[in-house]
Specification:
Layout lengths: L5 E2 L7 E3 L4 E9 L13 E4 L2 E6 L4 E6 L2 E2 L4 E2 L6 E3 L5 E4 L12 E5 L6 E5 L17 E3 L3 E7 L12 E7 L2 E2 L5 E3 L1 E2 L8 E7 L5 E7 L5 E6 L2 E6 L17 E5 L2 E7 L8 E5 L7 E3 L14 E6 L5 E7 L3 E9 L7 E4 L12 E2 L1 E3 L4 E8 L7 E7 L10 H5 L3 E4 L5 E2 L8 E5 L6 E4 L1 E8 L4 E5 L18 H13 L17 H13 L5
Parallel strand pairs: 18-22, 36-38
Antiparallel strand pairs: 1-3, 2-26, 3-29, 4-5, 5-6, 6-7, 6-8, 9-10, 10-11, 11-12, 13-14, 14-15, 15-16, 15-17, 19-20, 20-21, 21-22, 23-24, 24-25, 25-26, 27-28, 28-29, 30-31, 30-34, 32-33, 33-39, 34-35, 34-38, 35-37, 37-40, 39-40
């Protein structure tokens, strides 16, 4: 197999992220794509860590991941147009390249996991259509119910000219009643390279991104059977202006309606992701190409939101590269301090025991020692996310917004019946916890606002004298031998918990072996 030049391991070269804490990382890159004939593989997309690119000359869909070209490919179509639907099925154009969609032109649908395949012809009910080179993201599941949105033809005479053709499948068959050429108000004018991507917008409504190659994209909202056009004001500074390359892909993420789009200089590989109306993108990738690598002004970008909340962004630039990026929002993790009578501390707003943050479980942990300094042998403590710098500058008043503790009308007296139970916490007049002296493990969740208090488990087994992690008659023999020889006894030999090892421990151990229960 051909060897590919691969860059991996989250490289951050030529990446940018803004002050809001968004982070863009390059996960992997193949920057020798000579195995993809640039004139025949003009469109591609990424999904589940793989790229799918149709070769119109051989009618083959190439599958490529970070290890390179897969050994098995899929049957493709006679056109370079390829996309996916919401269910993850591949849609590839079978229209004759180039020009407009003509007779017998259609869409081949392939499930990449089962290899199930179905083909549909685009009916004349869709009206006069424009160029067939590229196709955008489709709605639904094209084996069942779905819709693909195509560019209307530009003749200057037809009343439906330059609209959006709606190609609908219902129940696994072409739905002729729902295949039509819709109007757009104000009008749009289809151009050589226009891609229409379906998505569900921030309001949960169906919408389209109508993207010209040479201009800024529009948002189309559904107005009955037709569409209303909304201009998208992407960042317009020279640094972040949209370049004249194909594509603009919608993404709903982090409570924002975002567009991924190519940057200037024209026909290079720079791109950005931004909200309409924003002064700058939330993240961007600076162009590395010195010139247009394909001659067709193609730079395909698409994205998917992952289960962990991050975003995977795919870039296929014919003749130049295949790239995968990861976009995350860096969430600042606050410190949590234990205030009060723990680990020889005194009550003060200026000092506390810093808890350790467990990122994997998103909790804070600490082991604390309480010395029983109170009148009844108890200690007090609560929590804060911010300590005062000194008592004269804010003091207790300063940490009041950050201080939290038990949900209780007064101090919460902790009893062993609460061991291991999640206890509720609050910032609203949170009360201190009162615990009897001893050693405790604390686990605190800011996400759930709970505290779990447990006693540390001993690192020995009671009654295990010979160190085999079992308690049996052999331990009685070993304990007697230790008492006779004066050999130092392990912690497990203190069977009666009186902090001394003597003949009483032998009796306690024998009683345990006979009854199966340790005495209290």
């Amino acid at each position: 197999m051909k060897k590919f030049l691969l860059i991996a391991a989250l490289a951050a070269v030529a990446l940018g992220a803004n002050a809001d804490g968004y982070k863009l990382e390059k996960v992997w890159e193949i920057n020798d794509v000579s195995f993809l004939p640039v004139g025949d593989t003009r469109q591609g997309f990424g999904m589940d860590g793989k790229f799918y690119i149709n070769d119109k000359a051989t009618q083959t869909i190439y599958i490529i991941d970070e290890n390179g070209l897969a050994n098995e490919q899929l049957p493709g179509g006679a056109n370079c147009g390829i996309t996916r639907d919401e269910a993850g099925n591949i849609l590839v154009s079978t229209a004759a390249f180039p020009g407009a969609w003509g007779p017998e032109a259609g869409i081949k649908v392939i499930n990449p996991n089962t290899l199930e395949t179905v083909e549909y012809l685009v009916p004349e009910e869709c009206g006069l259509l424009g160029r067939c080179d590229h196709i955008g993201f489709a709605k639904g599941n094209f084996f069942e119910d779905g819709a693909l949105y195509l560019t209307g033809g530009n003749t200057g005479t037809d009343p439906y000219t330059d609209g959006v053709a709606v190609f609908t499948v219902t129940g696994g068959e072409v739905d002729y009643d729902m295949c039509y050429l819709a109007t757009v108000e104000p009008a749009v004018t289809g151009q050589t390279s226009t891609v229409i991507n379906y998505y569900t917008d921030l309001n949960g409504e169906d919408a389209l991104i109508y993207a010209y190659r040479s201009g800024y994209p529009f948002k189309l909202t559904f107005d009955g059977d037709n569409f209303a056009k909304i201009s998208l004001d992407l960042p317009g500074t020279a640094e972040f202006a949209k370049g004249h390359s194909d594509g603009a892909f919608p993404l709903i993420w982090d409570g924002k309606e975002l567009i991924i789009y190519p940057l200037m200089p024209d026909y290079r590989d720079g791109w950005a992701i931004a909200e309409a109306g924003a002064e700058a993108p939330i993240a961007y990738f600076e162009a590395t190409a010195a010139a247009n690598p394909n001659g067709y002004q193609n730079d395909w970008l698409n994205a998917e939101v992952n289960e962990d909340g991050s975003v995977t962004i795919y870039q296929y630039m014919p003749g130049l590269c295949l790239r995968v990026f990861k976009l995350t929002k860096e969430v600042e993790v606050p410190n949590v301090y234990i205030l009060g009578e723990v680990n020889d501390q005194v009550w003060a707003p200026t000092n506390g025991t810093l808890m350790e943050y467990d990122a994997e479980n998103n909790v804070y942990t600490a082991t604390v020692t309480l010395d029983g300094r109170g009148e009844s042998g108890e200690n007090y403590f609560s929590f804060t996310t911010e300590l005062a710098e000194n008592n004269d500058d804010g003091g207790w008043a300063y940490i009041a917004p950050f201080r939290f503790g038990a949900v209780s009308e007064g101090d919460f007296w902790f009893d062993e019946m609460y061991l291991g139970q999640p206890l509720p916490l609050t910032y609203e007049n949170g009360q201190a916890f009162r615990l009897m002296g001893g050693e405790y493990n604390l686990t605190l969740s800011l996400e759930n606002m709970t505290l779990v208090i447990e006693k540390p488990q001993p690192d020995f087994v009671r009654g295990d004298v010979d160190g085999d992690n079992n308690v049996n008659i052999g331990d009685v023999t070993a304990l007697i031998d230790m008492l006779l020889t004066g050999e130092e006894a392990p912690a497990g030999a203190d069977c009666d918990n009186n902090h001394a090892v003597n003949i009483s421990d032998v009796t306690t151990l024998v009683d345990f072996l006979l009854s199966g229960n340790w005495p209290e």
